[in-house]
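Bench notes, afternoon.
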Amino acid sequence: MQNTGHLALYRKWRPRTFDEVCGQDHITSVLKYETATCQLSHAYLFCGSRGTGKTSCAKILAKAVNCLSPVNGNPCGECAACRAIDTGATTDVLEMDAASNNGVDNIRDIRDEVNFAPSDLKYRVYIIDEVHMLSASAFNALLKTLEEPPAHVIFILATTELQKLPSTIISRCQRFDFRRISIDALISRLCHIANEENIKLHPEAAHLLARLAQGGMRDAISLLELCSGGGAEVTPERVSEAVGSVGRGEVMRTARAVAEADYDALFGIIAEAVASSKDLVVFWQELISLYRDMLIVKTTPDASRYLDLTDSEAQQLSAVTALFSRERLLAHCRLLDDALLSMQRSNAVKRTVAELTLIKMSDASLDISVESLLARIAKLEDMIRSGASFASQRTSTPAVSEMSELPVVSDDMLPEPPPASEDLALKSPQISETTVYEKPAPASDKASTPKKQTSAPNVRSGKRVLKSIGQWAEICARVARENQPVAALLAGTRAYIDGDDKIIVRFPNPFVQGMITNDSAKKDIVLNAIRAEISQNIRECDVLYEVKLVASNTPDDAIFDEIDAINNTDI
């Protein structure tokens, strides 16, 4: 008795000829030619993502090779052979699911059957779906039969995970790669089905359904049937409600709140999603998709080629993208990926994970990852390029770059000079001989020779002008990879370059300095790391090892301490 019950739309609208297959013309044209000219292969391999037409093409091919009246390589669908295959009345076309029949015994049964001629049709066709699920012994049992089957046997293998197939199987088949179906093809097919089924489908809803399907026709048709349940009109709101999505607008509002560090808005968005029983994992995936789109806008001149958006959505995306730098987007993508993995754990509290991650994304100082630090450095570099001054940024975001020069220091920032009295030696701390901050010069030079001007301002007349070395952290990391004990001695050190291109390495105390300077091997390790990061032309005499002054009224250290504190300010 024929089944008169409801038939799912994706089954009802499954293509019956090669011409009805959407978005796979590069495959259907070859299959039509082979069937029309009877130049058939003994084994076919259909690979691609779900819902792209692999099984449908396999069934069409099984009908086409057995059709009594083919039309330009397509099955007629009316002859006895086509009807028998459609109704499953023939035993010559066998469709096997390897996910549940993956043992060697199942393949042995096929190997024994192929020796018998077809009972009703011209060819005996074996369609093995999800063939990558077969066991290793099953693959071995299939090898010989797959390579040299009888002339009346055709194998059609289908898989979504080609990488799991042995190369010995792939090399014995004619391989076809099924592509994801384009958004336009999906929209066209959905509109056609909706028109035939008397479903009211809003154009924007069709676009949203096609985007949610991610290139799979079966997923798109199934979503259309879900959203049209009860005869309701399919609108974007209906689609978002059916799939548990918060909508593109809400996701963009989340990104804008992150850029503006609007914590009230962020907590409100998560609270609304939880209260409305939305799946936070779905919301998080949409947020990741939005960041992917923003990265494309930020990095490519023609982003429309890679985005499936309407004109209004593209304008909104451009406006939100302008609030972020490329480095900050990359840092946020890492946080989003980590949070998604945490949400998918069995006992994870999704709401807490989402809220904590959004807070980290809003305040870069809370994230110490490499991507976040790169974003903060990029912001400082942008400020330098824009000409931001030190004085105007002391209370906000400092400007700093590699080998950055000292910012302008006014006289009122310097401590008062010590009084010129005979007991000055008693008031001044004892300084190691290597801790020299004043450039010795003959008295005649001080009176007659003007001081050489450098790009950095003078801290004080007669003092050295030092520039902080931005690569010092990388130099210490390189030393750590070669010798951990030497790297431990460099902890707490700072490095500068003076007007004579000498590199000054300052140690926190004389003991640590002596551990380096009294061992030529340790000095060589440091020198090699400096050469690798800065310049190979640096000589051993160009590197000076000094001890940092501890006196609070020492001009150089007071200034450098203040500058280093500013450079470490969170942004």
